[in-house]
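User: My collaborator sent over this chain with a note saying "see what the structure looks like." That's all I know about it. Can you take a look?
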Amino acid sequence: MKKWKINRFTVATFIAILFHVSGFIGMFTSKSNWFVDNTPLNLLIMFALILWTDKGKNASFLAFFLICFAVGMLTEIIGVNTSLLFGEYEYGKVLGTGILDVPWLIGINWFTVMYCSGVVIAHLHRQIEQKSSAAEILLTPRVKLLSFIFDGALLATFFDFVLEPVAIKLGYWKWLGSGSIPFSNYLCWFLISSLLLTVFKLLSFPKHNQFAVHLLIIELLFFGALRTFL
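Assistant: Without extra context I'll predict from the sequence alone. Here is the result:
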């Protein structure tokens, strides 16, 4: 029987599960507003756990964070104030203060989603490459890069697809006009994710983080369950 090893990855995963299970249960109690209001705390704790569990923090890792934050904030500011990118929408008060009608937490969230999506796809591609090598199938660097970008952007866009109806119900943001989620939102998510995941792939920092894989799965299950039952 394999002994379960307690390390920073298991501790971080336990904390993430605890917060999300508590949050899910809390949404169906009389204290649901309290759980919604503390969404920023949850986002910051998950961000802190990513930093804690990442063993390869270097200048490139910092550069990736800053690029994700800057691109995320800039595109959202353009989107909110011009309706030219994602569609016509506005943020509520749940996610806290920000600049030009965009909460600062959105920039952090862009990093979290891009980082977790990148780590998950990098993990899957390592497994595929091992099997391809065993079968003597040669994958060119260009094919590997394009496949990584497409798969990662698709995963990040799928995450937004799962999140959107829940975010609207909880007051994170709302779509104006008819209130429906426009196709342009998902198109922009895919294109911006493709850009940021290209940066993720090309920058030199370790792409191994078990917690990032666990966190993306936990959050997909969390928002997927809320989307179903809320």
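A starting point for your reply to your collaborator: The CA atoms of residues 154 and 190 lie 6 Å apart.
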